[in-house]
Structure formats: C-alpha cells, structure tokens
Amino acid sequence: MKQSILVVNCGSSSLKLALFNGKEEKLASAIAERLNEQDAFARIDGSDRPVPLPGSATHKQALEALVKAFQEWELMPEAPTAVGHRVVHGGETFREAVLVNNDVVEAINQCADLAPLHNPVNITGIEATRKLFPGTPQTAVFDTAYHQTLEPHAYLYALPEAYYRDWGVRRYGFHGTSHHFMVNEAARLLGKTPATTSVISAHLGNGCSITAIKDGISVDTSMGLTPLEGLMMGTRSGDIDPGVFDYLNSQGMTLADIHKLLNHNSGLLGVSGKTNDMRTLCELADQGHKPSAIAIDIFCFRLAKYVAAMMVSLSQLDALVFTGGIGENSVRVRKKTLNHLKLFGFAGNAELNKHNGSHSDGRIDAVDSRYPVLVIPTNEELVIAREAGRLASSH
C-alpha cells in the first residue's frame, strides 16, 4: 500500500484537511468554515463542486463529510497510513509530537482550560478520525511543544510562584510548528545546519508571534499563557496594560465583554474600524483612510520593537525571517518594519522586497545590511505530516 498521510487541523470554527504522499507532495486539501453556524460550508481546494454539510455542521460532521468526499472523488481511495493532528496547547506535558492513545487524549483534555476554544475541538478531530480509521496510527503535534526549551527567566511571569506551581500560569508560546519549520528552512537557504543556526522568526498572519531561536532551539517568544500576548494581530490586541481590565470593568464591561473585545474586536480590525485583512488595509490607506494607515503603523512599530527585544536572547543572528500570510506577502509591512530597525543595521533591498524574495532564494536584504533578511513561506501542514509519518513508521 502506498504511503499517505492525512493532516487534520481543527480551529475554533473551522477545519482544514491536507493529504500528503510519501514523497511529501500534497495530493489534496480541503476546508470547512463557519462551523456550528447556519451558513457553515465546505469545499475541496481546486474544485467548484460543493461538499454538502448539514445545517450548523459540527467539526465531527464536517470531518466526516470531507473524508467521504475525498474517498468518493478518489482523492483518498484507501485509508491513510497515518493521521497527524494539530493540537494547540500541550501545556508542560508535551515537549514533542506523540502517538495518540487514551492517555494522550486525557492529557490534552486536561490542558483545555488553557485553550478552551481549541483543545476541545482538537480532541473532537482526534476521536472522529480514530473511529473513521481505527487501524491507522494517529499523531498529535503541539503548537506549544517547540517552546518547551524556554528557560525559567523567559517563561515565568513576575507573579508569586504558587500561581505557576498550582495553576500552571506561565508563558507557553504558540506557532511552534511554524517557527521550527522556519529555522530549518533558513538553515538550508544559508548553507548551515539547524543546530548552528540562530534566527528571529516572525510569523505574521491573523495570529502573529515572533520567536528568538538560538542554535535551532526556541529561547524566547512573544505569545504567553494564551495567544493574546505579544504582537498586534488581526483581531487581538496583543500586549496591553493589565490595568485596562479593571478600568473597563469599572465602566460596566463584564469579563466576557473584555475577553471578546481583546480577542475578537481589537488589533488591526479594532484600530482601523474596517478590516483585519492587511491587503485591504493597505488599499484603504492608499485611498486616504487615516485609521487604516495608523493600524499599519502600529503593527509595524510594535513588530520592530519585538525584533529588537528578541535580540537580547541571542549571541549571534543569522537572519530575520518573515513568514505567514502578512510576512510572506506584505511588501509595505516588511519595508516599514526594517526602517524602524536601521539603528540595528537592518536594511532592505526594495526590488527584492517587491518580489517577496522569490527572485533571490528568499533574501530581501540590501548589500550593506548587517544581517540577512529572509521571506520564507511557512508549511505547518508539511511539518505535521513529517511527524506523523516518522512516528507511524516506528509504530
């Protein structure tokens, strides 16, 4: 039987599937969105044929419908040889990807309080595929695992120790799969080995995080106990004075109101009052919409401040790496961010930047830049597929 690996990524209201062969080639992919809502929909990439879903489809129903479509359309005529799952939060329990068993599912469930919107649906995806493919090895790959190498000075908050000891209040970090992929790809492009490569990796999408990687290992990162800490994001505020919570509460807002504000109605969307899409914001800014221009300025300024902060954890820097939808595609964001970093010796090449590094093996730095600057498309699905294949082969 030919090797095939199914990658399952359950988001809070979405589901993504990707199918890879043994040569790490993507054979098919699909997405379902607006799950648990009346207008839920699903589609297989590259096809105009709809994938029917029941009204207010759940993650389980969407997964079953998409797997059925893969089979009926002969994209996946046989059961996969391995299944890899993205799991958002592994707490301190998981430092690497693991084969799924009942104990692993229970441990993921115990981390649910740290990621209440994601871990429960991640478990739903695991349980559904275990029923669909009972003889297939399942692997869990954790967003937080890569950052378990952080030292206490980087992951502890300035709180009484009991809060960490009793409740696990600490900085965990996220997007670890993407950041791990970045250092490996940067090493390849720079002609080095990952174990001798140190980079600052900026993952910029609707969710944004930045990580200092020293000799292939995460030593600092911007996200914390939850994905709310750190950079300004599409709808998340990022860092904010904790005193704001008390003030907003005194103005009549409930904890739920504040949570919704900071996670769903802030960031690029909140400042611009228009959208969280960077492409649209740039268009609006060019048309003279001042709030959109301000949103972009704040985003780039805060990103540059975090790049500078990440340098504290490194003894050398082989490259600054941009990735994610914004990092890979926004010429303006990269240019503005690098302009803020002139004192540190960063300098961009306008022509290379205009082409997103596609004409230069990812390089967009000027000849006089103190450090290389790279644009590298992320591929978290491939990392998950690799881990699933690796662990399945040892199963």
Automatic annotation (TrEMBL):
Its EC number is 2.7.2.1. It holds the Pfam family Acetate_kinase. GO terms for biological process: acetate metabolic process; acetyl-CoA biosynthetic process. ATP binds at residues 16, 203-207, 277-279, 325-329. It is an enzyme of class 2 (transferase). GO terms for cellular component: cytosol. The record marks 175, 236 as: Transition state stabilizer. Signal peptide: none annotated. Mg(2+) binds at residues 9, 380. The active site is at residue 143. Keywords: ATP-binding, Cytoplasm, Kinase, Magnesium, Metal-binding, Nucleotide-binding, Transferase. It is found in: Cytoplasm. It catalyses: acetate + ATP = acetyl phosphate + ADP. Its main location: cytoplasm. Its cofactor is Mg(2+); Mn(2+). Substrate binds at residue 86. Pathway: Metabolic intermediate biosynthesis; acetyl-CoA biosynthesis; acetyl-CoA from acetate: step 1/2. Homodimer. Catalyzes the formation of acetyl phosphate from acetate and ATP. Can also catalyze the reverse reaction. Belongs to the acetokinase family. PANTHER family: ACETATE KINASE. This is Acetate kinase. The gene is ackA.
